[in-house]
């Protein structure tokens, strides 16, 4: 049993000198920060995703890794956008609309470390993210694992789809 656990830990740990694929996002952060700690957190999930290994603002491409999100954070610098991923199968992949991230084999964990509880499980705290129009989460053609946990999404009143605005 100990040997199996040690093997798992060695496999999961980054090699000596390599930076772990973890980024931090908070309402007090700045997207120009490196996101490697709470003290140097980014302010949007989008900026954290493009800063992960394999990510790039040109494209833009999401990298692979884990993003921890604190209350007060924004999802996307694009107005009204949520967390939107597209894979090469999407017809808009060559020229993605604003707010979209290309995900060509990226493996992503986005974990909210929230202070908001409601719904059927109010004991499970979530990060409450405000949105305008559009889906909070949109996956188009992705086949790699995308894990998003501990979020609640709140739309602005009068901005729901189909209201004519």
Categorize the overall geometry. Answer: globular
Number of self-contained structural domains: 1
Q: Report on the biggest sheet.
A: 4 strands, parallel
Mean pLDDT rating: 81
Helix-and-strand structural type: alpha/beta
Uncertain parts: 1-18, 158-165
CA-to-CA gap between the ends? 59 Å
Q: List the helices and strands in order.
A: HEHEEEEEEEE
In what order do the strands lie side by side in the largest sheet? 1-2-5-8
Number of strands: 9
Q: Portion of residues in helices?
A: 10-25%
Indicate the proportion of strand residues: 15-25%
From the alpha-carbon coordinates, what is the Rg to the nearest angstrom? 17 Å
With helices defined by DSSP (H or I, 4 residues minimum), what is the helix count?
2
Q: How would you characterize the overall build of this protein?
A:
- The chain is of the alpha/beta class and 165 residues long.
- The protein has one domain (21-155).
- It has helices at residues 2-12, 45-51, and strands at residues 22-25, 65-69, 83-86, 100-102, 108-112, 127-131, 137-140, 146-149, 151-155.
- The strands form three sheets. The protein has a four-stranded parallel beta sheet with strand order 1-2-5-8, covered by helices on one side.
- Strand 1, helix 2 (45-51) and strand 2 (65-69) form a beta-alpha-beta unit.
- It is globular, with a radius of gyration of 17 Å.
- Mean pLDDT is 81; it is low at 1-18 and 158-165.
């Amino acid at each position: 049993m100990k040997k199996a656990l040690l093997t798992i830990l060695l496999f999961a740990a980054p090699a000596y000198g390599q930076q772990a694929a973890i980024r931090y996002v908070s309402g007090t952060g700045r997207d120009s920060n490196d996101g490697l700690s709470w003290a140097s957190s980014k302010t949007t999930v989008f900026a954290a995703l493009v800063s992960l290994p394999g990510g790039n603002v040109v494209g833009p491409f999401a990298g692979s890794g884990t993003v921890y999100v604190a209350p007060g954070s924004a999802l996307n610098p694009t107005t009204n956008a949520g967390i939107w991923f597209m894979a090469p199968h999407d017809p808009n992949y060559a020229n993605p609309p604003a707010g979209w991230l290309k995900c060509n084999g990226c493996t992503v964990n986005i974990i909210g470390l929230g202070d908001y509880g409601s719904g059927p499980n109010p004991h499970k705290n979530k990060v409450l993210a405000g949105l305008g129009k559009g889906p909070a989460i949109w996956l188009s053609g992705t086949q790699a694992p995308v894990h998003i946990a501990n979020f609640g999404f709140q739309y602005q009143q009068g901005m729901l789809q189909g209201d004519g605005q």
